[in-house]
Amino acid sequence: MKGKTSKGNGRRRFLTRGLVGGGGALMLSGCDKLGNTSWFSGFLDKAGPFTEAAQAAVTPANALAREYTEADIAPTFRANGSTDPQDDDYLDHVDADFADWKLEVRGLVDKPLSLSLVDLRAMPSRTQITRHDCVEGWSCIGKWKGVPLKHVLEQAGVKAQARFVVFRCMDTLGENIYYESCRLVDAFHPQTILAYDLNDKPLLVANGAPLRVRLERKLGYKQAKYLAAIELVDSYAKIGGGKGGYWEDLGYDWYGGI
Ligand SMILES: Nc1nc2c(c(=O)[nH]1)N[C@H]1C(S)=C(S)[C@@H](COP(=O)(O)O)O[C@H]1N2
Ligand SMILES: [Mo]
Questions:
Q1: Of 50, 60, 113, 191, which is the most exposed, with the fewest CB atoms less than 10 Å away?
Q2: Is the shortest distance between the CB of 80 and ligand 1 below 6 Å?
């Protein structure tokens, strides 16, 4: 199952409901200030992303990413990659305003969980204003609110054999379903949250509604959108193309540190 809609263009009507928001030009202008002036694109061209060893040599794993002020927030958070998934299951959730959507927490846990948005919003939350850096050479500052992944993992109870968290998404990009993964130390990082709000509003479809991860010390492609499940595993070798993520399977660095 590729998950592509068989219901044709009719399913695209939510686009005109404005959930995606803004025209392309408008969305770009929200980030121009930073995208054009930041050190970031030049840095990546020359050096590539931090590998795990390089980052570990410079900063400890629990070092915090820089946080910004309200004044730094881009007027529109740019969207990238999948911005309007057409997978049937996803479109059903959009139609129901995500009322029946649940985040499954499974794999190497003591107690698998199934959490609704109401459940997630009732858990402790963290709000952070951070800069998102995409390898395509743009950056954007946004305010994210969500539940620290740590709380979810503590509730589920991580088994001793678990080494990675796999983020299972609902969107098909090209031929494959998007997914990502990170080490437990990054999953327990204080700024790693499962975000449901962006700039004080529920996430738009374009930015990963209803839930996406924020791994603030990592590049844009690690920030998995449209979450369906988080899975605790001891290895990701048998998942997807075996490299730990959608873009990793196509050759990107798995660690993706910044
Ligand atoms: N599920 C899913 N997550 C994803 C992507 C995607 O296509 N699908 N694209 C990634 C990339 S490359 C970037 S830069 C960011 C973009 O997030 P945004 O649309 O909120 O800017 O999401 C990342 N997470
Ligand atoms: Mo990206």
A1: 60
A2: yes
CA of 79 to the centre of ligand 2 (A): 9
Q: Ligand 1, residue 220: give the atom nearest the CA.
A: 14
Phi, psi of 215 (to 5 degrees): -115, 90
CA atoms within 13 A on the CB side of 241: 16
**103 HSE (CA, 13 A, CB side):** 28
Taking CA atoms only, the protein residue closest to ligand 1 atom 5 is: 81
- With H, G, I as helix, E, B as strand and everything else as coil, classify residue 163: coil
Whether ligand 1 lies within 6 angstroms of the CB of 167 is answered as no
Ligand 1 atom, smallest distance to 207 CA? 20
Atom 18 (ligand 1) nearest CA: 79
As a whole number of angstroms, the distance between CA 97 and CA 79 comes to 20
Q: Over range 68-72, report the average pLDDT.
A: 98
Residues ≥6 apart with Cβ < 8 Å to 90: 3, 170, 171, 226
pTM of the model: 0.85
Is 79's C-beta closer than 6 angstroms to any atom of ligand 1?
yes
| 38-52 tens-digit pLDDT | 444 444 444 456 777
Decide: 18 and 205 in contact? Cβ < 8 Å: no
Nearest Cα to Cα of residue 149 among 44, 239, 222: 222
